[in-house]
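Shipment paperwork, digital attachment
Item: protein structure file
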Amino acid sequence: MNPKKTIKIVASIGMCLFLLVGATGCSAFRGHRQTLNIICDQEDAILIVNGQRHSSPAQVRVKRNRDVALQCHKEGYVPYQRTIGHHFNATGALDAVGTLFFLFPCIGLFTPGAWSLDETNVGINLYRK
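Attachment content:
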């Protein structure tokens, strides 16, 4: 085989691979976890995030494409329970639009980076029974 032809083939394959990676959805490169900041107004309250115990204030890294279950309780106070949802974010929307022009941004739509938590800063007020 001709060396010039071999170089052209290798360069073409390399360029295709470069474009494939470069056209992949931006969501694929975002972190899979997001930081949730939680503070409770009562000292020594027990804070439970997705079944794991924490002390307040807490910074908890949670999956950005899953709902987060919050519980906070302390003796003599009404227990607090809440779920924080998640939504399709702007990066995911850009990947969806990019899919109209290139096929590969759709890869980002299937990753957690296309989602964000509905809320990242939570203040909890416990009330006496």
